[in-house]
Amino acid sequence: MESTDYMKIAVALIPLLPLFGFIVTLLVGKRMGTKAHILPVALVTASAGLAVYAFEWVFRHQEEPFVWDAFSWILAGKYEVSWGFQVDTLTGIMLLVVGIIGMLVHYYSIGYMHGDGGYYRFFAYLNLFMFAMFVLILADNYLLLFLGWEGVGLCSYLLIAFWFPKKSASQAGKKAFLVNRVGDFGFTLGMLLIFVTTGTLQFAGVFEKGEMIASGTLLWICLLLFTGAVGKSAQFPLHVWLPDAMEGPTPVSALIHAATMVNAGVYMVARSYPLFVHSDTAMLVVMIVGTFTAIYSAYIAITQNDIKRVIAYSTVSSLGFMFMALGAGAWAAGIFYLFVHGFFKGLLFLCSGSVIHAMGGEQDMRKMGGLRKRIPVTFWTMLVGAIALIGVFPFAGFWAKDEILAADFEHGYYVVWAVGIVTAFLTAVFAFRLIFMTFFGESRAPEEVQAHIHESPKVMTLPLVLLAIPSAALGLLAGWPPESGWIHDFLEPVFYDVEHAEFQWLGTGGALMVFSLAVALLGVYLAYVMYVKRLELPGKLAARLPRAYQASLRKMYMDEVYEVVPIRSTIAVSRWLWTAFDVNVIDGAVNGLARLWAWAGTTLRPLQTGRVQNYAFGIFAGMLALVIVVGWVWGV
Amino acid sequence: MSPLDWWLLLAVLLFCIGAFGVLARRNTILVVMSLELMLNAVNIALVATAQFRSGSAGAGVLFALFVITLAAAEVTVGLAIVIANYRNKRTVLADRFDEMKG
Amino acid sequence: MPGGDFHPWFFVIIAAWILVCGLGVVLFRKIVYSAVSMVFCFLGVAGAYALLNAELVAIIQVLVYVGAISVVVLFAIMLTETQGTEYKLFFNRQSIFAAPVAVAAAAVLTVLLVSSEIADVGEKSQNPGLYRLSELLFNRYVFPFELVSLVLLGAMIGAIVLARAEGEKQ
Predict the structure, then answer these.
(1) Do A627 and C112 touch (CB under 8 A)?
(2) Which residue in A95, A102, A349, A593 could disulfide with A51, CB within 3.0 to 4.6 Å?
(3) CA-to-CA separations, A131 to A29, A112, A155, in angstroms, rounded
(4) Contact A611 B98 (CB under 8 A)
(5) Residue A443 contacts by C-beta under 8 Å, 6 or more apart in sequence?
(6) How far apart (Å, rounded) are the C-alpha atoms in residues A312 and A306?
(7) What single-letter DSSP state applies at residue A579?
(8) A residues 593-622 near C, CB within 8 Å?
């Protein structure tokens, strides 16, 4: 067997194993009780292993991606879509992220979800999610990608609303699905436009014709596709679902809303590189939306009190950074950031889950404090994650984020660079605000809770440690030296034509690097001052700038805007349609028709006089009329 | 206007007179009488046509004979009905019989 | 002007006789007058048959119509006659419409008649005589002949049943 044959088996099994796990667990999981996790976890481990194998294969064949047209899916006249797989270097990166983090989250969930009534359901849904996500990244055409896209959206809904008896959870699930739908609609229109213009949805086919598409059409295609990404990756204005998605269990937040699903938008835009690269306007839009989202959500994050919400807004901000990179032309940098971000953001979520577990379910940071002595493993791993996030040398975030900011500067987008710097500052502030409020100072928790604080079981802490390692080291391993590290070469075949700037240690590059590092440390110091040294400062600052504080706390009133503008007007229109249109017009028509018949009957009844002579007259006159008509027609 | 035309014209006029009688008079017996007029008109038309056009070889005349016969039968039954009605409602006026109204 | 082998004026006289008597039937107030008018009308029609070389029919017309049907009608009038002035209206409410309709019908049919070729006489023809008619009746048309007698039988029985129903309950 050739190596491609092994690869075919691997690529086919990677999504199929979790699918199988989903079906079986759903059917028999209930009876397995606390053992229900065995099959799904085993299957996802196998998938992860195969994903690593596939990555390794791509590593050895960087110039020729693996393409496999497995079987025909839709056949409609001239139009054909097949279930086809494509594994190139970009897919390879995604496989690593999805496979490894997915696997670790499964193990973590064994501990976190222990004792939950829907234990088997959780693992079934997680497996279904893995299936959909793998299909998404392995697809070789837009339609199959969209299948996975919708699939992860569905799983997101199922898992956010996992504790559905809780009203806020089921509403959050609905919100996620509906907001996503808006984006999906744009995505669908984009795909339609692609098909109409190029006649195919195969990546290879579309990209060949990419240059020949008229620029106006191309702009629309890119913008519509980007709309889908805005929905899926929670950018402004479709970001509102992500913070509410924190209603779901923490492993869900870690996997779906940090490491994998929300990256689907970024992946899709990156995959569509050959389209976007020919449309400067589209890239500008992407960059602006990403940049704005980044600073907007960082601003909100600094006042949030729920530990998971802080990380959620941080994710939105990080995704904004990724789009900023893609839009500015730093494609490899954006994917690099995606790569490392998956690890440290997943780590941060899982750590927060560990904290919540220790606190017996408490998520409000105002009730925490002084935990670092009590749950040391969690503390140290979370600290690693936080440092990686804010981008301090030499941890992962530093290299990636720095490269993005440098790219902004070099391409001349100074305003964007400035916003990025401010965002980095805010990120440092809120990240360490979180660390200080949670782990330092005096414990503000009630007595009973304090007594129960304990470190999480090994099955939970081991993934934390395993994630902390890449969070620390991956930046260096993959991104050194800057601009020409391993990952840049690795992604070369996908992002051809991108210029590589030469990194000057003693020139602009080095200066920017030092500057952003300084900004990050300044943020840490500010957080230290406000939350460790002088605890009255936050209160005083909030009192001095009440409007600014409220705006941040209230999520910039976005939910209120949504309530008023689309929701209220839709409800009003519906109500009008019901009372004015349905009742009057439609019911009126139907009832009116009935009344019409009744009226006709009543009016025509007098014709039945009961007198034979009247009837005879009718017959005679009718016959006469007939004769006249026939005579007329025959031209008498 | 050939001879046949005139005979047919006679038949038409007699037929319409009879029709008027059927439609416009109240006494049922009179209606039956007018009906006989109409039948006679038809017979005239039949016999006249048979006389002036070739081909039927007597069928027209025989047809008229049958009409006469059946008209007799019909009058019999019809008047029996009128009398039966008269016994029930004490009237022979056609417009008093409207139980099937509506 | 037709008249068969006779003078055309015969046709005019017979036609006028028939039409006048016909009008008499439908227009008289007193029903007995109508009945008598009807008898005369039938006689006129018999005369018409005679003009048309159909003597058999003329004889039978007199025998059946004048001799039997008119009698039956008169009997019926006798059995149902109410005292003359019990009702005032002799024409019903729809007679206002019936009159024009009848006139229109006559007009339409006349127009049809005149403008069509129905009366174009081709070969000269003539109604067959008695001998020929009886030949036809008992050979070719024997089946309708027998059926008609059945109908007559049925009519007789029906009339008896109807006329008897109220009388004896038996």
Answers:
(1) yes
(2) A95
(3) 18, 22, 10
(4) yes
(5) A368, A369, A370, A371, A450
(6) 10
(7) I
(8) 613-614, 617, 620-621
Interface probe for B, chosen from A603, A611, A614, A620 (most Cβ of B below 10 Å), is: A611
Q: C165 has which bridge partners?
A: none
> What pLDDT score was predicted for residue B69?
95
Distance CA A368, CA A355 (A): 9
pLDDT digits (tens, 9 = 90+) for A191-226: 998 888 888 888 888 888 777 777 788 888 889 999
Among the partner residues B23, B95, B97, nearest to A616 by beta-carbon distance: B23
Gap between the Cα atoms of A407 and A419, Å rounded: 13
Residue at token pair 């909100």: A300
Phi first, then psi: what are they for C128, rounded to 5°?
Answer: -70, 160
Interchain contact A617–B (C-beta under 8 A): yes
Tell me the two tokens of residue A323.
């789009």
Distance CA A265, CA A137 (A): 11
- pTM of the predicted model as reported, rounded to 2 decimal places: 0.69
All domains in chain B, ordered by first residue: 3-90 (1.10.287.3510)
| DSSP 3-state of A75 | strand
Q: Using an 8 Å Cβ cutoff, are A491 and A90 in contact? A: yes
Q: Which residue from C minimizes the CA distance to A614? A: C94
Which ipTM score applies to this complex?
Answer: 0.93
pLDDT for B1 equals 67
Angle between helices A215-232 and A280-301 (to 10 degrees): 20
Kindly tell me if the per-residue pLDDT of A277 is higher than 80: yes
Contacts of C65 in chain B (CB under 8 A): 36, 40, 68, 71-72
CA distances (Å), origin A579, targets A566, A573, A575, A583, A586: 20, 10, 6, 5, 10
Give the model's pLDDT for residue C123.
63
Q: Rounded to an integer, what distance in angstroms lies between the CA atom of residue A462 and that of residue A109?
A: 12
